[in-house]
Amino acid sequence: MVVSRELLTLGEQVGARLKARGETVGVAESAAGGLISATLLAVSGASAYFRGGTVCYTGYARTGFLRLPATLTDMRPDTEPYAALLARTVRETLESDWGIGETGAAGPTGSRYGDPPGHVCVAVSGPVEKAATMRTGLDNRVANMEAFAAAGLRLLLEVLGR
Questions:
Q1: The total number of structural domains that make up the chain
Q2: The domain that contains 94 carries what CATH number?
Q3: Residue spans of the chain under pLDDT 50
Q4: What domain range includes position 65?
Q5: Exposed, middle or buried by CB within 10 Å (0-12, 13-18, 19+), for 16?
Q6: 20 to 30 A from 86, CA-CA: which of 33, 59, 79, 142?
Q7: 101: left (phi over 0), alpha (psi -120 to 50) or beta
């Protein structure tokens, strides 16, 4: 998958803002499949602000990379609190200023939790925390992955201030 022009523009904006502030970011994504990280890394000079990222698509990855339990008993995935947990944990794990967390159902079917395809929750964690839910209404997996990545990057831009 190639990073679209829209995503690249968002990545450039996030990168410029983080560089100007002297801050760093870590990413824990799921249904976006690594597109948030790929977008940030597609920008020249990303090593100044990108600490790292992981695709926590399974309980195995969540446990192995973020040291979170494979099964969470107090919250369900694909929710704003879960996205915030991912964002907080990756920020703490990578000792970055900001963390982005993303969780959703890219499609073509919904999640096992009852969410329709195109449902995503994104969160950022840093000096402030913010989470949001979005539904694209699409069952196109690739289009949803791109929309999910854009949502995470836009949320970080929002809290950083344009």
A1: 1
A2: 3.90.950.20
A3: none
A4: 5-160
A5: middle
A6: 142
A7: beta
